[in-house]
Sequence to fold (244 residues):
Amino acid sequence: MGVIFNLAVGVVLVLLLLTVILWSAKIRRKPVQKKPQVPVFQEELAEEVAFPVSQSDSAPKVSKQPIPEIPWHYGIDRLVLMVRDPNWIYAYWEITATKQEEFNEQFGPEAWSSSRPVLRVYDVTGVEYFNGNNANDYLDISINDYTDSWHIEVARPNSSFCVDVGRVMPDGRFITILRSNIVKTPSLSISNLLDEEWMWIEGIYRSITNLRMGSSPMITEETSQGLGIIPLGISSPGMPDKKH
Fold:
């Protein structure tokens, strides 16, 4: 009896030992699962709402056109004279390199550099055909080679002027490079010229009676005289009324 008990106990121990060995081997073969790492900062992307756009609704692409700049020079030899007021005139000009070469070819290779530029202002009041030598008088204004415009004080109202841009040679000769147009300064006093007589149209004259009295001194005066007389003309202000 004791032998059987000892044998049974030995079998049980062997079974337990085998169970422990098999369990340990199973644990070694099982892969270890790693925990996922959670990022400290999570990036969120917002979805944009897109609206369908048809081809007809899309605006055409307009390309920006560069704004053109006003050129300093036009490559044209010219001298323009303008009237500013009764006492002042204004001149602007352009002398091309071709003109300078022609000057040197005619008067010598050093003619341009050895001469000095001058603006000559002629008083041509009453001169019918000005040829450069028949002016009433003239005034010389010294300028430099980089000047292309000048305000000229003439202090002569109701007078005509012409201007030359030229060079004064070492021997004193004046050579005209460009000649301007002729301008006339206005008068400082009220003009003594009478206006032309203008015939009134009867229909227009009668229609002014529909205007409110006092809207114009002329209309008030004419309408107060009635419609029997139609004025034949209007003269300059301050002139005596003409009787017909």
Notes: Residues 212-216, 226-244 have pLDDT under 50 and may be disordered. The CA atoms of residues 43 and 162 lie 82 Å apart. The chain has five helices and eight strands. Helices lie at 2-29, 97-107, 111-114, 202-207, 217-224.
